[in-house]
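Hi U.,

Before I forget, here's the chain from the pilot set. I'm dumping it here mostly so it's searchable later in email.
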Amino acid sequence: MSKGLFDTHTHLNDPWYQEEQIETKEIIESAKKVGVSYFCNVGFDVKSSKRALTQALKYKEVYAAVGIHPNEAHKVDIDLETEEIETLANGDKVVAIGEIGLDYFHNGKKYRDQQIKLLELQIDVAKKHNFPVALHIRDEEGKEDAYLDALEIIDRKKVKSGIIHCYTQGPELAQKFIERGFYISIPGIVTFKSAKALHKTVREISINFLLLETDAPYLAPEPMRGKINTSSYIAYTADYVANLKNMDVQDIITATATNAKKVFKISLT
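Structure:
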């Protein structure tokens, strides 16, 4: 059995699990049976960030990221909510600020200014605490505006460490982020036959810059596509990445876990 998998982006705090009466302990134990050893439990608003931290403190395998998703930017008092994230960032086992970023997929650039303000304020929190940022970046179909805006902000704010969460694009764009000190996190989407650009990225980008994630409970990989996702399904992603890179799966697991250790600044045993 493989061992040492690090699910670098999951949402144990998501209400979907509660609605389905799936307990956090059950998710963790199931994942450990297939070799998952570590989890980064990621917030997407203040409430979920608080829950992420609570769960991290309860389970030794779990770390937390706290942050406000860009799709919340037009719904909240940005300054007040960012102050809440600043407070949560002081919590034990917080290892990143996320998920934060830019999302032009649903509303185009309608809320661009609010999203940029929210992102920049949370970057300031990350820099103050010497945390990496976990960036959610999503564009309108066929465009790269959100990615280009993110690159501009990263340069202007002098961000030196982070993760591009749930990456689905090609290697050229990925390389731009790698050059700025970011890791590229590979989701279960890589197992989809249609994910040609992502397949190319995995083949061409060095394993030294890749991470693995589930984004659970969303985006379950093949052959579980369409089901509620859990961290145990990251094993399918690891196998698929190993095949694309023509590497042993344990080498993929070891390398990506080592990368996670570096970006989160934690010690893994």
